[in-house]
């Protein structure tokens, strides 16, 4: 049994008291999101009202899930915390490091050949610290979580932005950076700005070619890629109840594409059915006992304009199938309106590939609906004009789909069945000819369709649609194919039409699997040895950062004065560097290489004040480190925006940068810097940014008196000997100053463990 029923029962045991306490305090009927948030406060019973979109609140998540790319650094850090076990149930899923090329077996073997040391590392750390481990080929993190771990009313965090998929089973599930996950693994609270709430009222019922995917494609159309930022999207209404649990998962999954913190649905019969068919009667029985607390209060849904910050209404009976794209998931086109739009925009009409699967759309229902279309093609003597690829979401889905003949249907159309893994969804697709960068169109049932995401080709126009529409379009070979009106000519020259897809929510014979790919941790993992080869290029055990020596930082040289936008991508690039996510020293060779130097306006070219020569940022910084010279990075507004990746804070720290002085920080990056023991400060007067010159030396002359709310004084010594003395603000509280003194938050946790 993979799920932790005792933990779930413990959550339900306190939910009544906490929800009632919250209702009294806020003094109005509660939405589901509020119930889950208030029931998961770190301090226990709610005692104050939090302002949505404003207050930062400490939460106590119930679970953590990590995927193989992000888990490496998260677990390397956790190993530094000196804890014998993770504090909350945690799982690791090997799904990102598997390329789709030839087909499942060969591709999986190839992944094992190239990334085995990473998988072995993740497996052994999991064993040692009580973490559930899902082997390569076991499935995609979010599908596996939905099948095994998600539970109504729960709160989880995961080191992947589509963690939000678990909202399909009534959770508040949120994607975070590795550093946040490590805190929770180590028994610390998790901080989040209390989200705003967007209500989506669903009426009517889906039918014909319309599916749950179209709900979120429509929501993306309405909200755009930024419209959900800082908010939880909560779906409710009769229409919501009519959607299957996995369909709800699809909708929540793509909430990430509108920037939402997460999305969720209230507990209903569809969720109960899903829990039972996936072997979790105990969870369903426990949930039924607190059913009223696992959905919003009826009064909140009756007057949604009063209880949500924004309200959207969608009538499912009128919802048309959509195709969104290319290059952005919010560019929506209803099927039937594509001809004109594609011509106008010069999108290639011929479709080369149709891809089904990913964490977004690989449920049994999805596969049966797509297979029902594929079967018609066989029956009506149609051939697929585009190539066809399928990524099952989990081994349980794959095994069951094979047993029930679904995969055979696709194979009859020459579909390639790829490994149960992310594959093309995360650019792990060795697509023949993509390197020549031809302009072309593909359709897929994934979530993201940014330029280059699937095959690395910037000229691939990727469109997102439902699995059944992918099947229909792949058969027709045309982007503007409308199965509701258009005829196709079969091998006998006859004109035929595709009928509406039919699907099954669950397999009639139930789900089955021989080897799910799950490895349970031993009860006592203390003797498990975690092996990292000293000469490994991909993994490196971390050495704790040095604590602060208690002295003012003096004689610090300017490494770079970043000009304009400097996101976490500029600080720690992705792409080919993903390979080194588990090797801090190697990945540090990308440190700040994307930042534009204010002097010369070039990237990755800075003056080395030791040699007087210009060089690359990481190499220059390594010279300063070797000479024992502290350095400062200066930045503009919103420094460190973008992803929450902790590498952007760890790399400069590892290379010996001591201070990041900017006009303003993106908040998550600022916190990450603090966690890694860096001094992240802001110009009290932002015009002082203009005082910084290329050969400057910095003295932080009152750091010895570092205290909350007390600005620091910075002496800037210019090359001609002249000086400017400025003030810098900071947001370190007492606890965060302790992190700084200890050298990092993890160093502090470790000392606390010992005392
Ligand atoms: Fe991400 Fe894998 Fe899903 S890449 S979007 S978790 S299929």
From TrEMBL:
Q: Which domain of life is it from?
A: Bacteria
Q: Which reaction does it catalyse?
A: citrate = D-threo-isocitrate
Q: What is its EC number?
A: 4.2.1.3
Swiss-Prot/TrEMBL cofactor(s): [4Fe-4S] cluster
User: Where is each Aconitase A/isopropylmalate dehydratase small subunit swivel domain found?
Assistant: 558-686
* Alphabetical UniProt keywords: Iron, Iron-sulfur, Lyase, Metal-binding, Transit peptide, Tricarboxylic acid cycle
A biological process from GO: tricarboxylic acid cycle
Q: Which GO terms describe its molecular function?
A: 4 iron, 4 sulfur cluster binding; aconitate hydratase activity; metal ion binding
Pathway in which this enzyme or protein is active = Carbohydrate metabolism; tricarboxylic acid cycle; isocitrate from oxaloacetate: step 2/2
Q: Which InterPro entries does UniProt cross-reference here?
A: Acnase/IPM_dHydase_lsu_aba_1/3, Acoase/IPM_deHydtase_lsu_aba, Aconitase/3IPM_dehydase_swvl, Aconitase/IPM_isomerase, Aconitase_4Fe-4S_BS, Aconitase_4Fe-4S_dom, Aconitase_dom2, Aconitase_mito-like
Q: Cross-referenced PROSITE patterns, in alphabetical order?
A: ACONITASE_1
Q: Does the keyword Lyase apply?
A: yes
**Domain Aconitase/3-isopropylmalate dehydratase large subunit alpha/beta/alpha residue range list:** 34-477
GO CC field: cytosol
Question: Which Pfam family, any one, appears in the UniProt record?
Answer: Aconitase_C
Q: Which family does it belong to?
A: Belongs to the aconitase/IPM isomerase family.
**This protein is called what?**
Aconitate hydratase A
**The species this protein was found in:** Microscilla marina ATCC 23134
